[in-house]
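PROTOCOL LOG
Step 1. Enter all chains and additional molecules of the complex.
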Amino acid sequence: MATDAKKIPYKIYLEENEIPTSWYNMRADMKNKPAPLIHPGTLQPLKFEDMQPIFCDELIKQELDDETAYIPIPEPIQEFYKMYRPSPLTHAVFLEEALGTPAHIYYKFEGNNTSGSHKLNSAIAQAYYAKEQGLKGVTTETGAGQWGTALSMACSFFDIDCKVYMVKVSYEQKPFRREVMRTYGASVTPSPSMETNIGRAINAEHPGTTGSLGCAISEAVEVATSNEGYRYVLGSVLNQVLLHQSVIGLETKAACDKYGIKPDIIIGCAGGGSNLGGLIAPFMGEKLRGEADYRIIAVEPASCPSFTRGKFVYDFADTGKVCPMAKMYTLGHDYIPSPNHAGGLRYHGMSSILSQLYHDGLMEARTVEQTKVFEAAEQFARVEGILPAPESSHAIRAAIDEALKCKETGEEKTIIFGLTGTGYFDMTAYEAYNDGKMNDYIPTDEELAESFAKIPDIGL
Amino acid sequence: MATDAKKIPYKIYLEENEIPTSWYNMRADMKNKPAPLIHPGTLQPLKFEDMQPIFCDELIKQELDDETAYIPIPEPIQEFYKMYRPSPLTHAVFLEEALGTPAHIYYKFEGNNTSGSHKLNSAIAQAYYAKEQGLKGVTTETGAGQWGTALSMACSFFDIDCKVYMVKVSYEQKPFRREVMRTYGASVTPSPSMETNIGRAINAEHPGTTGSLGCAISEAVEVATSNEGYRYVLGSVLNQVLLHQSVIGLETKAACDKYGIKPDIIIGCAGGGSNLGGLIAPFMGEKLRGEADYRIIAVEPASCPSFTRGKFVYDFADTGKVCPMAKMYTLGHDYIPSPNHAGGLRYHGMSSILSQLYHDGLMEARTVEQTKVFEAAEQFARVEGILPAPESSHAIRAAIDEALKCKETGEEKTIIFGLTGTGYFDMTAYEAYNDGKMNDYIPTDEELAESFAKIPDIGL
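Step 2. Run joint prediction.
Step 3. Record the structure below.
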């Protein structure tokens, strides 16, 4: 469907004044709103006051706002966006040629910033609102380190404190990530630490443990709630994060409109959903309002198939059960993908917004296996130059598969996918692939049943 | 001198059709041409035939061409450039604000590609000419790994073989770099290896050695000359490399012209000189032709002060003495900076072109100390977002120093510096800085005298 209205450059950079000045909130156009977060004790929807000890005020408002379609981006955030945005929408001419496909492939690349991923789009917003509220700082957890890096950069820019609890095994195995965060002035503590009640308890119970994301969340929340002037921030899953990430989709849409590109298929990888939710936002908006139709495909790892094999129920948002419950596609809060799985996207649940959209048949989902993901990553790197993050490579895999289908049918479909980031800090996974030592892993139905059994049945 | 002819965006991206279609050869406008490479045995200038067993034919022509001002960039190289060029010229508004300086600071950022630096500009040219000549592949050495990564990407794109000899200590300490190269299909061999005569000899003489760049060069040259269909390629120092890198300066000049920016000072870090020579090319051209004047500053580490404390004489281009001799500013081919020195730019010599220009008073040079470099790197990262390579941070240091002078004098000077790359693979050095464990090192006059004594006196 691509037209030649205007010669399409290899990389489409918008002008600085074409960076969006408002975020788009898909919820405003959803007929079936995503279910609210509920308190696990009372089973009542969380209200502003319930969240206030944990989250920044303005972010809570955004979290609860199902009505406002466009929320203005504060000026200082717009200024920061100019440092690395607009990000390019790239016409993958070399990939098309290598595949010999009649399809037109484009990717929106979010890796051209030091955090190496799209996470910075929300980190800067969250740091800004914390600063505006007069807070001293924020706390968070990080696993692989992309979110922690992004938040460190954002806090450094607004000169507020940033305390990162990093899963101990990553802290030890990814010293580079740790040092990037420290260079931006963040304090990085291996979790479980001896600085918190919950950390000391976990260390006592499991001596020598290398930690987990659930545990790091618990520590970060404890530190935020027990220190004057601190709040806890999170890099994915939440409605507010998808809102901030809509900047990805709005730019993509603007670039498409400018050059007369009309996508047939939009593809994004899905872990907690922040990238996918951001990329598809304005396109889904058109779809929800009945103005246009697009095939939208979420791609998840076969080893962590929340959409495709999960249940759409209320479950805890975290393994440690310190967070509220969310209605979402979940594999059970206790589910942890096999250690064989190197490719990111390890979250057991999914954004409530995307869960609702999927439930309502407005998007598709599919799984891909790990070795096939790295095969696509390598093929992409060799012709398009960019070394993709394992997470992003799930979307590459699906885009290549769709383009190869077009080759069979001769259809000239236009495919856009989200290239969320670079893989520079993921070379251990690439090494395993290069050495032929990477395995696939698909959980059995029995394993999932065991994990599902731990989801509390609250009758909602 | 900046004018407000047109509102200057934070990042100035040129259009795709503004990427240069010719490289600019400074030598054509130099009254005093750089001295030719000579054969260490005969002391005669190397001719085309002398170089043919080692280098690709077309590259030798470029190496020897002192006359042609503009050399067309072949179409396939232009196509490749589109994948990551034009690179942005960024107005450092946040750095200016942090410094409180009336100066206008701009930087040309070359790190937005997977190799993480400007090296790709020449790698793609060299791989292309090897392919055009019908060669099977190329060999090279790499230390920190930027050049090896860039060459791997380029060879993968043109589907020719790439054999990288990586200094053993880097091979072991920088496994990520190694894996990036392997992902692009290069073979990466720790040097000294047991695959070459020279490697076996060195291993026999120095059991357990962790290698050196000089040794890796010797191995790469041996493999290129003893295998049918292979040639050796080099990522800096040579005239041909400066030629290819002129794309940096040409784009910078185009962006300046487009927005009415007239630099007073142009600053680049200098190791072998490829980045600096590329950045300044068209500006130096104007200066050589008497059309304009600019202050041009080369910045080098205090621990490896080729320009500022070296001798302008013929010396071996490599420690192993397998390469020809070049007339250049040199600390002596035996000089190796202290292991304390973490910040790149470790080459004992300097591009012959830049050496001649410096000798003729057409540019300045200064040294900066390591901890001051990392202090500047951190300050820059925190306000401008990008985590700079240690090499690039030498230029940042000098730019900040010049901007602070403007603050004292109230002058509104326009400063442009080259930000050659990102520091993602240099976090060990950042860690040392973050931990307060980084030391400065300045060679004593006695140490330099010892090293100078080993330069053969050939009376040229």
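Step 4. Note key features.
The longest helix of chain A spans residues 239-259.
The longest strand of chain A covers residues 161-167.
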